[in-house]
TrEMBL record, chain A:
Signal peptide per UniProt: 1-18
Keyword Transmembrane helix annotated: yes
Pfam families: CcmH (PF03918)
Name this protein carries in UniProt: Cytochrome c-type biogenesis protein
TrEMBL record, chain B:
Record GO biological process: cytochrome complex assembly
Main localization, broad class: other
The protein's name: Cytochrome c biogenesis protein CcmG/thiol:disulfide interchange protein DsbE
Cell compartments where the protein resides: Cell envelope
GO cellular component: cell envelope
Protein's organism: Sphingomonas abaci
Thioredoxin domain ranges (all copies): 35-174
Keyword hit for Nucleus: no
Length: 135, 174
């Protein structure tokens, strides 16, 4: 009775172990300068965690995200610009890493879609108001 | 039926069904690939992590194509990958390694248990070099040619059926 239980518990323990490793010192420690910390935080909120891809590195508990936060804080503390740090990561991981897409040839449909949908909605509303007034 | 607009919702539903069917039968590749393929290795210099084995720097990638294995002793798929790395080593391919967030004693125990295919192992305590490589997890393996240019990236553990292809890719990179 005890042994199958123990084996089950051991099997359950493996995925937890896969997330070990000590995170970097600056992963969860704020920078002493509040202005720099605010800059770093704003940047972290718009960078994707490459392990848990639906989350920003500010939200993620993955150790890799912690290391990415440490990288952001270290570079901000060195005086680098947030835009330069974002570009450094884009150069390595592609634009997927950034949650802040620039307006260019590939992303314009994304930016223009809300305006188009608003115009379409206005057009439909106009049509239906006119019909009900006619009745 | 003189009103073609009536068919628009059904057509829209048809398109949606098609998109879902394509996504179901050919799921998108969710792996984050490095964009450094066909570009030179970034500058890095890592300290040794186990006694008797040198650390790793960019300058070590000269003379012939090498594999660069990103691994960790705490990584379960790295254990599954170990026999394939040993097979590649036996095929005459030099393999260098970067140990992510690891300790010397843990790496030594890992190598004792799973075999040691590595010529050099660099210590990357905060994933800094891993991030510079555009690598998004462990294990990952890069094929680097004799000029230090990254040729390929293998994401995830190397399976037995990949070994022949990797040997061929290393030959092609010579």
């Amino acid at each position: 009775m005890i042994r199958p239980l123990a084996v089950t518990l051991l099997l359950l323990a493996v995925p937890v172990q896969a997330q070990t490793g000590t995170p970097a010192p600056l992963a969860d420690t704020q920078l002493p300068d509040p202005r720099q910390e605010a800059q770093a935080k704003a940047l972290m909120e718009t960078l994707r965690c490459v392990v848990c891809q639906g989350q920003s590195i500010a939200d993620s508990d993955a150790t890799m995200a912690g290391d990415m936060r440490a990288l952001v804080r270290t570079r901000i503390a060195e005086g680098q610009k947030p835009a330069a740090i974002r570009q450094w990561l884009i150069d390595r991981y592609g634009r997927y890493i950034s949650y802040d897409p620039p307006l260019d040839a590939a992303t314009w449909p994304l930016w223009i879609a809300p305006a188009l949908l608003l115009v379409l909605g206005g057009w439909i509303a106009r049509g239906s108001f006119r019909r009900s007034r006619g009745r | 039926m003189r009103r073609p607009l009536l068919w628009v919702p059904l057509a829209g539903f048809g398109v949606l069904l098609l998109i879902v069917a394509v996504g179901l039968f050919r799921p998108a590749d969710r792996a984050v690939h490095s964009t450094l393929i066909d570009r030179p290795l970034p500058d890095f210099g890592l300290k040794p992590i186990v006694p008797g084995k040198p650390g790793l720097s960019k300058d070590d990638f000269t003379g012939q194509p090498r594999l660069l294995n990103v691994f960790a002793s705490w990584c379960v798929p790295c254990i599954a990958e170990a026999p394939q790395l040993l097979a590649l080593k036996r095929a005459g391919i030099p393999i260098e390694a970067i140990a992510i967030r690891d300790t010397g004693t843990d790496v030594q125990a890992f190598l004792r248990r799973n075999g040691d295919p590595y010529d050099r192992i660099g210590d990357d305590p905060a994933s800094a070099t891993q991030l510079a490589l555009g690598s998004s997890g462990v294990p990952e393996t890069f094929l680097v040619d004799a000029k230090g240019v990254i040729r390929r990236q293998y994401i995830g553990d190397i399976r037995a059926d990949q070994v022949a292809g990797i040997v061929a890719a290393v030959e092609a990179a010579r």
